[in-house]
Amino acid sequence: MAKYDESQIQVLEGLEAVRKRPGMYIGTTSVVGLHHLVWEIVDNSVDEALAGYCTEINVEILPDNYITVKDNGRGVPLGMHPKMNKPAIEVVYTVLHAGGKFGGGGYKVSGGLHGVGGSVVNALAESMTVQSCNGDGIYEISFSRGKVTEPLHKIADGKKTGTFVKFKADADIFETTIFNNDTLAQRFREIAFLNKGLKITLWDKREEGTEQQVFHYEGGLKSFVEYLNKNKESVNKEIIYYEAEQNDVQVEIALQYTTSYTENILSFVNNIHTGEGGTHVDGFKRGLTKSFNDYARKFNILKEKDSNLAGEDIREGITAIVSVRVLEPQFEGQTKTKLGNSEVTGVVNSITLNKMGDFLEENPTVAKAILDKTMSAARAREAARKARELVRRKSALESTTLPGKLADCQEKDATKCEIYIVEGDSAGGSAKQGRDRRFQAILPLWGKMINVEKTRADKIYNNEKLSPVIVALGAGIGNEFNIEKLRYHKVIMMADADVDGAHIRTLLLTFFFRYMRPLIENGMVYAAQPPLFKLAKKGMEDVYCYNEEDLEVKLKELEEKGIARDSLNIQRYKGLGEMDSEQLWETTMNPEHRTLVQMTLDDAVKADEIFTILMGENVEPRREFIEQNAKYVTNLDI
To answer: What is the pTM of this model?
Structure first.
């Protein structure tokens, strides 16, 4: 037995713990964690903006992927820390949980929750330099991997105030140290929307000729809603906006109704995106529902015999931003992105009830237009309920509750099961014969399904293409979706590698995004990658290639083995149906050899925009998108 005594009890001093277990502090050492370093530093500057001292933040990506962040806030304190007996700026960047966010009066509200930002970035940086301007000069301190390499010293005189941070992520820690300009831009745009008047510039200097991107919105949340709805048709032209403070909770909300059928509520706490919602969203929904019902009762739009309007009907087509600032936010949920402060519900509910009530009474024409849409949504919901019950009754009467075309798997543990949604009966037949029936289910689809971006839920339940998908997955749709009832934890789209196949995948993805979003959020949706080419020659094992580049590589490899190109039979697959069951299994379904592309949701705002452009009613934004992106298309069958 291995010896275990006091000598094996390890004490990690300073920032060694961060370097030992970086995932505990930034979630992951992937590209996501890499960008988290930038969020931590920028959040410190945003906190200065929240406190009313910072108006500009400048971020640059330099050659070799150095990052610089500069703001015009108050600067980091430079005096000797009374307990640590070292400059405060050194404490901030070398001691965990050190900062002005723990009740010392430095910040009233803060986006940096744990006070670990600067020190964690320092620990995970190959090099880091911080300059602080406090009004009587510019002072600098340098670090490497959490340790001071150059003590604090004055480098110049100057009367300006602010902070400048330059760092390079440690390649020993991260899988990649290459920053993505688009990822940074999306987050900075979001921050600028949430902090009206704050100007954030981003300049990627890794290539010559690039220009600054400027994010600056005096309209704040109103500008955010306008941005989200730019490709949608609005019901109320003027965006509804209100802000108020109650019991130390600051509430800011903007909303607009569109002619679409889905609700889009984005929520934030102290600038942090709360993807799972929470008590602030609950309060908003309650207040919104009651304000519309009170208005409809007061003006006799709802009669005494009528039941109240349902919240989901009132929210159909809404785009809303709910932003609150809380002194001591408490988060819960799997990804810690759900606000748990119970007192916030009542505050947001009360403010929304009062503000929306006033708005509806002062704008009767807008109120009527929204209520007309709500009444239509209620009728559609009732039709959807009847269609849903019909599906359930029909299923109960049949010998099995599953669609007739579904070839189910034997395994009952959903975490081990996967379902292939296959384009066409021919490919579906090959997939059924070639699969591993222990854990692989096959559901063939034929023809193109309905575009849910232009359709209400009642039409979806009645659709012969989508209904089998809903029943097979077993988790419901929309507000009723319950991921715990899901029958397969891998949902794999398998379609031809042509225009029609791409269209079917897009239609399916639109459906999953709008009505089963947790599937994508939990990484359960995949696209199978069937081969495009087969290289064959008598006496040689068939070689499969998945794209043009792969084909060229394989051809060169074969040439090096003495097999000439012109001696090969190169087959270009036009569809899945051209492969027999054995080929389909080996190339596309065998877990040991197949290639799957996981669908991820890195940016819900961007995803919403893309689905609206590609699948929505308006033609002009789609035309513009095609014109701008046509040059990037490859392997497009004409």
So the answer is: 0.73
